[in-house]
Amino acid sequence: MIAPVNDKGTVKKNFPQVRAGRRSLRLFASSRECYQIPRQIIIGQDKGERRMDLGIVGRRALVCASSKGLGRGCAEALAAEGVHLVMNARGAEALTQAADAIRAAHGVEVTAVAADITTEVGRARVLEVAGTVDILVTNAGGPPPGLWTDWERDDFIAALDANMLTPIALMKTLVPGMIERGWGRVVNITSQSVKSPIPVLGLSNSARAGLTGYVAGTSRQVAGKGVIINNLLPGIHATARADALDAGVAKADGSSLEAARAKRQATIPAGRYGTAEEFGAACAFLCSQHAGFIVGQNLLLDGGAVNATL
Ligand SMILES: NC(=O)c1ccc[n+]([C@@H]2O[C@H](COP(=O)([O-])OP(=O)(O)OC[C@H]3O[C@@H](n4cnc5c(N)ncnc54)[C@H](OP(=O)(O)O)[C@@H]3O)[C@@H](O)[C@H]2O)c1
User: Fold this and answer.
1) Minimal CA–CA distance to 237: which of 200, 206, 265?
2) 62, 63, 68, 279: which to mutate for ligand 1, most atoms within 8 A of CB?
């Protein structure tokens, strides 16, 4: 059972609405106002179920490319912390389903905007609907695989547009408002390829390195205004993107999808692929109140696959 409190820690009576989420209860005073739930007043919890309060209940997040995979994991984890969402993807059907499921599970406001986030028109639509945004998670599909001899100028421009210039444009639009309000969080989903190049993903290696350089400089210019920008670097995670990459390997090797997966899995010290849920949990922490001193970092989530000391 959870008792609601006001800012002074006093238990609030006659609270109008209590909604059961998947992992906790959310206490809403109105459609926009949601109360903090300090864990010390959580009564009768099962042993081992205490959770850290991330301090972001009632914040508003824009999570790009979030109907599936890692973006969806981030959307789910933020919603579980009481954050209201604007979700985006190109395909309306999967997006609506994901938004409905998250709304039902966590009792937060979820608005879905079907649009291509890598186009100017798509971004404008998403930003118009999103309005005030406290938390921005940038994401888009990754560039296609190939060989270093395959790519021409247009291929690089498309990759730069999707995986470097789109997140930069989103930050340029939304960070000024966060600075004005004195609080903001940005998490960019990039790739393990930033730390350790992936031979068949030269377009990704290049575009994401560019974004990483931009974040390294920009994050240090806005941290003093309460806006914290970091990057999350996924190694291999069990998503549709991983299936597509494994299918490419299987085709090239003349093997099965299972064999390609087993081969890749054997290169990961954790012995498995990551999950969108654990990726989302890391994202939610970087978006939390507690992440205010983590500035311009590149957090690798790869099960130990990159063999490096730092
Ligand atoms: N999974 C991994 O192992 C892994 C590893 C390293 C890096 N990454 C990178 O992480 C990112 C997410 O990967 P994922 O595995 O989550 O991919 P995923 O499972 O294929 O999901 C991609 C999501 O993004 C949406 N999306 C794609 N392009 C979009 C666009 N232009 N505008 C709006 N929404 C878009 C998709 O919906 P629609 O198709 O309907 O738009 C879908 O919801 C990618 O950039 C990927 O390269 C993934």
Assistant:
1) 265
2) 68
